[in-house]
Amino acid sequence: MGVLTGWWRSRILARKRRRYAPVERAAAWAALSLLAGFPPERAVRLADLALLFLRDETFEPVQGLVLTERMRLIIALQVCLPILELGLDWYRGWYAVIVYPKQFVSGQEYMDADGLVWVDDQVKSREAWEREPVILS
């Protein structure tokens, strides 16, 4: 990481840490049982990665959902866990995280190998498409 990039990242993180008070960050962390017993040095890296993710990504609540800052942070922590050792560049190309208040049916159309078009009408709690948004409930 270059000097300028490191400086810019530290400024972003300082601003984000002020926005998310320690009590808010602790509550978000505690809400995720999968993070219990996480090594402290990795916990700091994950928290920083989540804060950087929050700066760069758009969250779009739908169907009347009111998305709180704590909810955004909880989502960001979970989204960043698989790329903790890889970095945010792995999510380049995402343009939004769409959040539903409950399970949903996406109605996504796709074509099979025989050229038939199908509509996905399964009830889901999450979905991701290549070069498209991630959808959560």
The first-level CATH class name: Mainly Alpha
Round the Cα radius of gyration to an integer and report it.
17 Å
Structure summary, number of beta strands: 6
Our count of helices gives 4
Low-confidence parts: none
Q: Describe the main β-sheet briefly.
A: 4 strands, mixed
Principal-axes geometry comes out as globular
Q: Please tell me the overall pLDDT.
A: 80
Order of SSEs: HHHEHEEEEE
Q: How many domains would you count in the coordinates?
A: 1
CATH superfamily: Glucose-regulated metallo-peptidase M90, N-terminal domain
Approximately how much helix is present in the residues?
40-55%
CATH topology name: Cyclin A, domain 1
Which key phrases capture this entry?
alpha/beta, two-stranded antiparallel ribbon, Cyclin A, domain 1, globular, 4-stranded mixed beta sheet
Verbal overview:
With 137 residues, this protein is of the alpha/beta class. The protein has one domain (3-136): Orthogonal Bundle (Cyclin A, domain 1), CATH 1.10.472. Helix content is 40%, strand content 13%. The protein is built from four helices and six strands; from the N terminus they run αααβαβββββ. The chain has helices at 3-19, 22-30, 40-56, 69-80; strands spanning 59-61, 97-99, 109-111, 117-119, 126-128, 134-136. Strands 1-2-6-5 form a four-stranded mixed beta sheet, with no helix packed on it. Strands 3-4 form a two-stranded antiparallel sheet. β3 (109-111) and β4 (117-119) form a beta hairpin. α1 (3-19) packs across α3 (40-56), α2 packs across α4 and α3 (40-56) packs across α4. The longest helix is centred in the first third of the chain and has 17 residues, at 3-19. The mean pLDDT is 80.
